[in-house]
Amino acid sequence: MNFHFRSKLLELGLQEAFTNSMLKEKEAESFRQGQPVRIMNPISDDMTTMRPSLLPGLLKAVTHNVNRNLEDVRFFELGRVFQNYRENQLPEQPYHLAVVITGRRYRESWNAPKETVDFYDIKGYLENFLAKIFLDNYQFILYPKATYLSAEECIAVEADGEILGVCGRIQSDVLKAFDLEKPVYGFELNVDKLAERIGFDRSYQAISRFPYSERDLALVLDDDIHAADVLDFIREISGNLLYQLDVFDVYRGDKIPAGKKSLAIRMRFQSYERTLSDKEVDKLFNKIIQQSQKKFNARLRD
């Protein structure tokens, strides 16, 4: 399974790094889960604690490269981590997979924009990797519990109520501990939990030969209501005629009251059995509008 994961990460253009499993306790501190796993007789002050995460080692590798003017870094690593030490018991030793990126979005060229990577780049790497390994039935959720990641730019991968990994921007104070000034983004996944959920049997569904109907909806609602909750509710009440559902715009500003946002949603309705009539689609669309307004205390945007 590790070979399978490694090959998919290489396909994404990432470079594999191999880092030491032993760290300074200070380097491991921000990433630890439970009691740290300390080494009884360390051979060096730089190797006193077993790594609780792959990210500290990768950050050290980033520092090493940045200090040598190699500032556009795309690294991944697969390996064991050591967590939740309990006296007279072995620590947990799951396999993890981690990726870090920093620097320019595009290779330096006369015709390439001078843009740096951001949260959506690392999220894109994560989504592409999960698509390549055929992980199904997962969702991204906001996740402020990873203390080494910025709360404003942090999500978790959740499946069946279990957290499989986290993704986001490394906290600036964590970066300072590794002598890094520019933003670094990363994700880390539990390989053992991933492997339990991956099936290699594929099934396919034919494309409907009947046309779809499209409707757009813009709701003005409270800013703290998550788009995912709105989409889940619409799916729940729409039945099997709702073929596709996407958010295509989020707006705050002029003509939108403070503490509110406008959420624009595009819906496609389609049947595998017949061509849907406008009357049929409009009836379902109006039901979605009315029940969404009631559920989220929302109104239609003018």
TrEMBL record:
Enzyme class per UniProt: ligase
Catalytic activity as recorded in UniProt: tRNA(Phe) + L-phenylalanine + ATP = L-phenylalanyl-tRNA(Phe) + AMP + diphosphate + H(+)
Domain of life, per lineage: Bacteria
CDD domains: PheRS_beta_core (cd00769)
Molecular functions per Gene Ontology: ATP binding; metal ion binding; phenylalanine-tRNA ligase activity; tRNA binding
GO CC terms: phenylalanine-tRNA ligase complex
Cofactors required: Mg(2+)
Keywords: Aminoacyl-tRNA synthetase, ATP-binding, Cytoplasm, Ligase, Magnesium, Metal-binding, Nucleotide-binding, Protein biosynthesis, RNA-binding, tRNA-binding
The enzyme's E.C. designation: 6.1.1.20
SMART domains cross-referenced by the UniProt entry: FDX-ACB
Subcellular locations according to the entry: Cytoplasm
SUPFAM superfamilies noted in UniProt: Anticodon-binding domain of PheRS (SSF54991), Class II aaRS and biotin synthetases (SSF55681)
Domain FDX-ACB: 208-301
GO biological process, one term: phenylalanyl-tRNA aminoacylation
Subunit description: Tetramer of two alpha and two beta subunits.
Family: Belongs to the phenylalanyl-tRNA synthetase beta subunit family. Type 1 subfamily.
Stated name of the protein: Phenylalanine--tRNA ligase beta subunit
